[in-house]
């Protein structure tokens, strides 16, 4: 056998070898002593090794514990910081939202306060225009009327713009007849174009689907804004709208609207900023033609909301071209258009023989008188009157009415409450159609009116032709039912 190298060395020091065992008891005892010492030393080494191992693992544990708790402390501090920042952000967001709500409420209530007297001014000047007047009186009333129209446009546009900016403008989607929508927009600018001797052109490409699904009010608003600008900034020549369609799948595509004019044009250095709010190239032109500088800003934002865009090209002194691209879906052929916008121009046949029994519910005496005069000027019989919701119900218990023109804000019982009661009192065929009269621009009020079963809303101030159009729509709907 070959012994361990250390044992071999010990044996040799003692003059022994594996092959030659100790020959004397002294040699044997010396060997045993050596072996025993070696064991003792190895015990000591093992003890020292185990000790040092236990110390370093304890230190390691302590170190990692310290690192862990340091890490946990830092994470906790960081979490606390983050939570504090989040709380601050949440507070800032709530404050911003409250600010936006306060702004909308403020705008709605200011516009409500402005609209109520404006309703009387617009309506009365409208009625006054239709009475015999001297030349100068006619001129004064005309100026009064134009100023009212400008003020009205300003209120509408400011409200629209702030609604869009606050993300509160919800788009409707419904089936619309494109040609009707175009005609309605063109009708609204036709008289202005005619007065300036401008030709109003319209062409629709053959591949344009006759019916699409979109938001009719906003589509019309885009068209009217662009056409109105075209007419406003053109002294001679024409304003033309062309409609194209770019398919993008079987049932969807882009509606392409181009409005071109032969007017003053826009300087090249202003083209980039023309869609900014309250931006006008030449304030002297604007002073001559009116305007708020909000029209194009609204157009641009509406186009974006409708999944599209608007661009402009223009040569100063030659004219401008605005190109609008709007995402739209094709309406299935079998569907009939469901645009609730009243026929425009109003149904003249129905309006010529007004036969509706109308109840006017309005607590403000000036606005009540105005509604009466407007109805009379349209050829309707003098309406029944009520000054609050309770009176409306009393009248309806006694008399048959086809239409209630219902102010929303009335003492004792408001218009919404009265409409809900009417819905409970009468069956669907027997109940009158209710048109809300409101100066309240809040979206919630609009929704509340529809929920209460009202057939339509007339925003104060409304003009005689708007009232006429609304009633004519109801009349043609109810013909055959009205006694
Ligand atoms: P507004 O017409 O009420 O002033 P808009 O936002 O509609 O406001 O237009 C902003 C400005 O852009 C106008 O004041 C006018 O300077 C310029 N502009 C818009 N459309 C035309 C156009 N068709 N031709 C020439 N200038 C235009």
Describe this structure in words.
The protein is α/β, with parallel strands linked by helices and 483 residues long. It has three domains: 101-165, Helix Hairpins (Orthogonal Bundle); 174-330, Histidine kinase-like ATPase, C-terminal domain (Heat Shock Protein 90, 2-Layer Sandwich); 358-478, Response regulator (Rossmann fold). It contains 13 helices and twelve strands. It has helices at residues 5-13, 25-129, 135-165, 178-195, 216-232, 283-289, 295-305, 348-352, 365-377, 389-398, 415-425, 443-451, 464-478, and strands at residues 174-177, 199-204, 211-214, 238-247, 252-261, 309-315, 319-330, 358-361, 384-386, 403-407, 433-438, 456-459. The strands form two sheets. Strands 1, 2, 3, 4, 5, 6 and 7 form a seven-stranded mixed sheet that branches. A hairpin with a 3-residue loop joins strand 6 (309-315) and strand 7. Helix 2 (25-129) packs across helix 9. The longest helix is centred in the N-terminal third of the chain and has 105 residues, at 25-129. It is elongated, with a radius of gyration of 43 Å. Bound molecules: adenosine-5'-diphosphate. Adenosine-5'-diphosphate (ADP) is lined by residues 225, 229-230, 233, 261, 263-266, 274, 279-282, 286, 291-297, 320.
Oligomer: single chain
Give the mean pLDDT. Answer: 83
Task: Write out the distinct hetero groups bound to the structure.
Answer: adenosine-5'-diphosphate
Q: Report the sheet with the most strands, covering strand number, pairing sense and barrel closure.
A: 7 strands, mixed
Structural class of the helix and strand makeup? alpha/beta
**Can you write the helix and strand succession as a string?**
HHHEHEEHEEHHEEHEHEHEHEHEH
Shape: elongated
Number of helices: 13
CATH architecture level-2 label of the largest domain = 2-Layer Sandwich
Assign a percent range to the helix content.
Answer: 40-55%
Number of domains: 3
Give the low-confidence spans: 336-353, 479-483
